[in-house]
Amino acid sequence: MKILFAASECMPFVKSGGLADVIFALPKSLKKNGIDARVMLPLYGQIPAEFKAKMQFKKAITTRMGWREAYCGLFELTHDEVVYYFIDHEYYFKRDSLYGHYDDGERFAYFCRATLDIIPYLNFIPDIIHSHDWHTGMIGFLLKEQYRHLPLYQPIKSVFTIHNLQFQGIFPRSLMHDLLMFDDHYFHVDRLEFYGNINFLKAGLIAADKITTVSKTYKNEIQEPFFGYQLDGLLRALDYRMVGILNGIDPTVYNPEIDPNLAVNYNLQTLEKKKTNKRILQTGLGLLVSETVPVVAMITRLSKQKGIDLVQRVFDEMMQENVQFIIIGSGDEHYESFFSHMEAIYPDKVRVHLGLNESLAHRVYAGADLFLMPSLFEPCGLSQLIALAYGTIPLVRQTGGLSDTVQNYDETNPAGNGFTFPNYNAHDLLFTYQRALNLYKSSQWQTLVERAMSSDYSWTQSANQYQQVYQELMQN
Q1: What confidence tier does 347 reach under pLDDT thresholds 50, 70, 90?
Q2: Over the stretch 11-28, which tens digit does the pLDDT of each residue have?
Q3: Superfamily assignment of 268-454 in CATH?
């Protein structure tokens, strides 16, 4: 079975969020199951030179963009036994950031078209194209509407995964004519039209043979108006095509036993060494070195989605406890300013690192005691899985993948592996936070840490579920 992943980012080449982790880890896991899984990506300017030096130029073609033709270069690289293809077009992809440009609609319309046009030159004709999020949503629609009559493309099936429904790729109607070469027949509520514009993610949904979401709970949530972002009606109609498959984490990247970023590696049998990582983290950040003071951490994008409003609302109350608080992240300016101000207000308790620092993040996962993730919504979430793998106990709101992975701990629920609260309410967060800190003082905390580290958070089970989806499509 041959699967071509199409995505806008992938570790270790470029990363802005959890999508990059998925596109890196899932193909590797599928290859262990005997599936030939390969990945198509844009050749961004930000890709490190060490990878570009190893790429092989394969082909140059032209691809049609409305009334004009555009250059399309194909490069290939094998990394960790997975074959990666890169679409080269410097005007579109040699930019200072991955997203947020005035012509993102044109850039990713080009990428979708180029992905299909380059397939005859790959020496690899996929059985299934698996597209991810809005940036690749138009691939399945183009395949169905403009390429299906060509013999090479007729057998190819399509799978589309929703990683975050909030971001849909909504662009003016003119793009449909000028770049995608669709006439007015396609500007209809049953096709590309979306409140007077066109919608890339909607295109991916209606064209896909199968739709997946990144957790079972999120699959159900997005069929409700609050989480559905005006697509809930369509998603309810397409429920028969949908399946929720939880993401995993790559144990070669997130594993305290082998993680090269840690001062001391540890596992379930050597948990005392986790305390060593805590002391070294405290020392490195200029905090009081104390085993009895719990270290509370957040590693997050600073946005409303991540529940930062709740933390902001009760932060002073949280700091009344005997704790140390570390946050790593970047995002909305007013959140960044707030936490920088809190670091000045509580210089002995709070440390803030604005920006992405992977090495520091790993050290915080290992050295912290409690991990806050009070999201408004969370399609899957990887941070809580990483925290569990490192024995750092997550405190989460019950939503999306957080509900599927973190079970509330109390004396009546011996299966619990963290702390949860149901309502998007700051004082519910504060109450749960205080309950967790009280438990930290007891012998039960060690049991909770051991339980957290005992579970399997790898991609093995998820890869098996994706394989089942592929096999069902191949049989139809």
Answers
A1: very high
A2: 999 998 889 999 999 999
A3: Glycogen Phosphorylase B; (3.40.50.2000)
